[in-house]
Specification:
The protein is an alpha+beta fold and 506 residues long. It is built from 17 helices and 23 strands. Strands 1, 2, 3, 6, 11, 12 and 13 form a seven-stranded mixed sheet that branches. It has a seven-stranded mixed sheet with strand order 16-17-15-14-21-22-23, with helices on both faces.
């Protein structure tokens, strides 16, 4: 083996360190979950979830040291979930809490934010960032710290995006790259390829790095201290880092053998990613969770997202708790067909309000004319009969996810003949895939075999940075198998979907 690439892959819950060889074969991997650390809100006193940066650092370092004894690691690449940043003081120490982006500061905060930086619709049209709820727009997280953690924030000398923070931990160098800063942050102007006017309105432009490089370039080498701790040579390079969804898209861009496609990447977030040649936002996109980001190649990609995996896990977990079982509901196509025909039970989004394609919807289940909110189900205040019928629950849940997926695909620019590739957790959801393929009868709907695509894409950037190769040079080392989804015919979907959309948008 000539060399190996180590990848630090940071999801919201699951963290991973993986090792790949020069042919992008995964050699090893370690996984760990980290519970959030909680701190009190300085005004309300409620508990805020924050990221355990020190705990993660300790584990990453210990795991990398273990792998360094087994493999000739020459490069480290970092990929992380979105909407997260870290504030550093002049000494390079974390000086403000790294709060989970899922926290919702409330409508007054949201209103004050847009009064400060500009209207939501104007911002979306100018810099292609949509108005997320919570603090999914990182600029809102910064505004939150300025407002409620002012004493801590005033010590800030630099604000680093999450992948670049970990790059800084390893190299001592600060930088910024396309995939993360352009990803619904409100801080990037796509057309001018520079920081947006929102950074001036928030008075943070001077706190953002000027060192802007391509995703696959080198941020720096390990510091002598870090190299010693990891048991790696100081010559080990660290890439600029990459946003997780963009990392999963990179292998498909390298192969690029299917023409126009949308990658339906499914996990906690379901992300419809449609590579484009230019930045075009349609009038009907404004106000929806539709936006542009940049690929690792600095080309536009139109995106529409929703928290599909979180929604699926939420209801399946509730079912298991309420039913007192560990058994997973069984897929029965006849039950799917009956639900579509009866049109008396609907599962409505969104588990995190304002996070997806139906931002005015209240999460819950409408059963025979009675609405059961997700909160009431969680607290057991009211439980629909649906929870005593697992096959029907799975059908109602999957139908909801398919409707949201189709909406996201359409808003991402799906046209006649656009190929749909589904990767991630929903590949194993047979009911979801068969219904989606049935509805998209004029499209090729395929499952891909990309395992851990995010880490794989990040490893690609490591090889590119270490060798100077392009993504196309790596195409022969990438194998993507495409499996056509059986197009089982379901009747009555259009009628059910119309009723569902009326309920989700009223």
């Amino acid at each position: 083996m000539e060399y190996a690439i180590a990848v630090i892959d940071i999801g919201m819950t699951n963290k991973k360190v993986a090792v790949y060889d020069q042919n992008l074969k995964q050699l090893d991997a370690a996984y760990k979950n980290f519970e959030p650390l909680q701190i009190p809100h300085p005004v309300t006193g409620e508990q805020l979830d924050t990221h355990d940066l020190q705990g993660m650092k300790d584990w990453f370092f210990a795991t990398l040291k273990d792998f360094a004894g087994k493999y000739p690691i020459k490069a480290i690449s970092v990929t992380t979930h979105g909407a997260t940043f870290v504030c550093l003081d002049k000494a390079g120490r974390e000086c403000a809490p790294c709060i989970f982006y899922t926290y919702e500061p409330g409508p007054d905060f949201q209103s004050e934010f847009y009064q400060t930086v500009g209207s939501a619709s104007q911002l979306q049209q100018e810099i292609f960032t949509p108005p997320f709820s919570s603090m999914i727009n990182p600029a809102k997280g910064i505004f939150f710290l300025q407002k409620y953690f002012h004493e801590s924030f005033q010590h800030t000398d630099c604000i680093l995006n999450y992948p670049q923070y970990w790059g800084y931990v390893l190299t001592g160098n600060k930088g910024v790259e396309p995939t993360y800063i352009s990803n619904h942050s409100y801080m990037w102007n796509h057309k001018e390829e520079t920081y947006s006017h929102a950074t001036e309105k928030l008075n943070i432009r001077h706190l953002l790095p000027d060192n802007y490089k391509n995703t696959h370039e080198v941020l720096g080498n390990l510091t002598s201290s870090v190299a010693q701790q990891l048991g790696l040579p100081e010559s080990t390079i660290v890439t600029m880092g990459i946003h997780d969804s963009n990392a999963s898209l990179l292998p498909y861009l390298a192969k690029d053998s299917h023409g126009d496609f949308i990658l339906n990447s499914t996990g906690t977030w379901c992300v419809s990613m449609h590579p484009q040649k230019e930045l075009v936002l349609n009038p009907e996109d404004v106000g929806k969770i539709v936006y542009f980001t940049q690929t690792a190649l600095r080309t536009p990609v139109k995106i529409a997202i929703f928290l599909g995996g979180m929604e699926f896990d939420t209801y399946i977990t509730l079912y298991k708790e309420i039913a007192g079982t560990d058994l997973f509901p069984t897929y029965n196509p006849q039950v799917f067909q009956q639900v579509l025909q009866d049109k008396d039970t609907f599962l409505l989004p969104e588990v995190v309000p304002g996070s997806g394609q139906f931002t005015s919807s209240q999460a819950g289940i409408l059963e025979n004319g009675t609405f059961y909110s997700l909160e009431d189900i969680r607290t057991r205040k009211a439980i629909p009969q649906l929870f005593s019928n697992p096959e029907k629950l799975l059908a109602v849940l999957d139908i909801s996810l398919v409707i949201q997926t189709i909406t996201a695909l359409q808003r991402a620019g799906m046209q006649e003949g656009t190929n749909i590739f589904t990767e991630g957790g929903f590949r194993k959801n047979k009911g979801y895939n068969q219904l989606l393929a049935s509805v998209l009868h004029n499209h090729s709907v395929q499952l891909t075999n990309m395992e851990e695509a995010t880490a794989f894409g990040a490893a690609m950037t490591g090889v590119m940075a270490y060798t100077g190769k392009t993504h196309k040079d790596l195409a022969d080392t990438i194998t993507i198998e495409y499996t056509d989804v059986e197009k089982v015919q379901f009747q009555g979907f259009d009628s059910y979907q119309n009723e569902w959309i009326k309920l989700a948008t009223k």
